[in-house]
Amino acid sequence: METTLKGIHHITAIAGDAKKNYDFYTRILGLRLVKKTVNFDDPNTYHFYYGDENGTPGTILTFFPWGSGISKGRRGTHQATEIGYAVPVGSLEFWQKRFEENNVIYNKPAEKFGQKYLTFLDPDGLKLELVETNEDKRAPWETSEVKAENATRGFHHITITTEKAEPTAYILTKVFGYKLQQQEVNRFRYVTDAVDTANIVDLVEVPGEAAGLTAGGSVHHVAFRVSDEATLMQYREKIVALGLHITEKIDRNYFYSLYFREPGGVLFEIATDNPGFATDETVAELGTGLKLPAQYEAYRGEIEKVLPKLD
Amino acid sequence: MYTHNKQVITAGTPAVNASKAIILLHGRGASAEDIISLANHLQLGNDTAIFAPQANEYSWYPFSFMAPVAKNQPALDSALDVIGQLVADIQAQGIPAERIYFAGFSQGACLTLEYVTRNATRYGGVIAFTGGLIGEELAIENYKGDFGGTPVFIGTGDPDPHVPVSRVNESVAILEKMHANVLLKVYKGRPHTIGADEVTQANQHVLA
């Protein structure tokens, strides 16, 4: 049994219009829709999972598209505020041109911790970054428009904005096994060597900044990865021992989860690698069907009627 | 016109043995017993003291929460005072503000938001199932303190027959400015009720 935490499992954010979200992530960013299901607690809302071919942990970005009428979130403290994807060195030019052609809002490339990166916003204002690195050896998902030489490899980092880095850093270092690697001004970079990729958490400390509003275009929670349920429950004990409240184990069909709020205010999840996404579809079919949890299968007709059309 | 007596139903673990507390505020025409049943759906853990005060006349104030405040007096001030006394009692039994939670539905959600925003500090968390700050216009001079990152969940229907989304947005802006960590979810076409997803959001955002 592997007992270590292995970086990011998935990141979940909130979107507005389902079709806009689907088009942006599958076409413009070139990710694979690996699972199309519904919010288990609100079956009239989709839950999209985008990732690589297999939906490998560390590549999965998920969305609840709450509909076009939703309020817009705002970045601030107590939030995960930037999602970084790894891309090959030299690909930013391709991406800049692509964003230009598709009216995507972006900034000119900049550099942090010696790596070039490009900041852009999704249709709901969610802040994403493409970070150039040749260290990331994960196999990319290719589309007709985004080929391997430019394609994203999965997550590079997640940024958490906080009034004070220390309480969150305590969880990262003492519980999750991360180490402080570098600091630039108010950005503290924590890395775990348990895995090679999707293993970076940046804490950005901005005292006095207002708390963020979690609504459209903001991150709902960040999930960290463990191998199996036995490891999951070991982490549960560690969190309980710190006096923090943590949920019971929840079956998310494609993984098992625990949720707790870290002391800096961000909702953290710990999720297992098992069973994965190829349980109700084959790898080749991933994302093609609307997959409903068993309790909603009887209502499929009604649910399909109210869910927004994607094509 | 009426004021409130302090009548509080309790459940869960007695406060002296509990490590946290939740105050549940019922809606118009409802009762403390009704709202206490909501506790079964919230992930409170078995170390929580549960308090549900009962409004006289089954109503915390007589008119709409968007009526001029004077029309809702003295009931409104009296209701806020009942909550203040209850918070003081809970603290006297050894549970600090940062482990006191609030949850309310509809009129109780409005009152919850109004109380915590007038007395902002780092609370455990705040759950408002359909509600906004109270008044014909918001009297921002009444809102004092700093939430210090208190997680707040507000769920609301759009349109809602009693609570306009515009007022909810206005309320969120004030809470945010006072450093609350707000999750806002607007449900298209949902009737005036508490949906399963709202309970889940409250459990994840506020009680996790």
TrEMBL record, chain A:
Entry superkingdom: Bacteria
Coiled coil regions, renumbered to chain: none
CDD domains cross-referenced by the UniProt entry: PcpA_C_like, PcpA_N_like
Location of the VOC domain: 7-133, 154-273
PANTHER family the record matches: RING-CLEAVING DIOXYGENASE MHQA-RELATED, RING-CLEAVING DIOXYGENASE MHQE-RELATED
Protein name, per record: Glyoxalase family protein
TrEMBL record, chain B:
UniProt keyword list: Hydrolase
Residue ranges of the TM segments: none
Segments forming domain Phospholipase/carboxylesterase/thioesterase: 14-206
Coiled-coil ranges (or none): none
Gene Ontology MF annotations: hydrolase activity
Pfam families: Abhydrolase_2 (PF02230)
Annotated InterPro entries: AB_hydrolase_fold, LYPA1-2/EST-like, PLipase/COase/thioEstase
Family (UniProt): Belongs to the AB hydrolase superfamily. AB hydrolase 2 family.
Name under which the protein is recorded: Phospholipase/carboxylesterase
Naturally occurring in which organism (per UniProt): Filimonas lacunae
